[in-house]
Amino acid sequence: MKYFKTTGFLFILLLFVFSCLSGCVAPQKAVQKEAVCKLPGSKIVSIAFDEARANLSRSECVSQFDDTFEALLVASSGDPKIENKRLFHDFLKWSMNEGIIRKTDASRLYTEYFSYKYASLPNDYNVCSYGSKEGQIGADLRKELVKKERGLMQVSKDNENYLIAHNNQAKLALILEATWRACSNGNDF
User: Which of 106, 130, 143, 146 is most enclosed, with most CB atoms within 10 A?
Assistant: First the structure.
């Protein structure tokens, strides 16, 4: 009987030691899942656009549109050519058709980066009503010119349209300033 008591005691002691030791084992590292949403990383422009579409096709990645657009600008700057304007046009149209961005956003982005026209101008013709926002409108035009330099010159090597945009910005600033002065002198148009 003493044999069973000693053996039983040893058995319980061994169970206790093993259970303590099993708690001391280092836990396995959790397997990290591969990131679902990836920004385009290819230096080859056409592949970068394919990566962007594949990424944005996933509903959980739609919120990365702005970062994706920026990554495409960076990739395209590494291989500037006029064809890049078409790639951006098609990408923005695809994004609009997929419901990722609105038509107005697609149009605004394309105009801001790849057109000599200005998207930051007020949409109505009552210029006098914007006289109080003269500083903001001027700042917006200058910011947009920086985007045009990037899109037209650095991404698509469209120097001709950039020069038109640059000249338009200077003319717009002069015309708006003269109009606002006339408005402030009581000469509503």
Answer: 106
Q: Is residue 53 part of a domain?
A: yes
Which residue in this structure is represented by tokens 């605004």?
A: 108
Identify whether residues 50 and 88 lie together within a single domain: yes
Q: Tokens representing 132?
A: 């109080």
Alpha-carbon distance of 175 to 167, in angstroms, equals 12
Q: Quote the domain boundaries for residue 176.
A: 127-184
User: What does residue 60 show for φ and ψ, rounded to 5 degrees?
Assistant: -75, -5
**pLDDT tens by residue, the chain, 189 residues:** 555 555 555 455 444 545 555 555 445 554 444 568 999 999 999 999 999 999 999 999 999 999 999 999 999 999 999 999 999 999 999 999 999 999 999 999 999 999 999 998 877 667 777 677 778 888 999 999 999 999 999 999 999 999 999 999 999 888 888 887 888 776 654
Angstrom distance (rounded) from CA 63 to CA 55: 11
What six digits make up the tokens of 70? 């920026």
**pTM above threshold 0.85:** no
Amino acid at site 78: G
φ, ψ for residue 78 (rounded to 5)?
-75, -15
Q: Are 127 and 189 in contact (CB under 8 A)?
A: yes
Cα–Cα distance for residue pair 179/12, rounded to 1 Å:
95
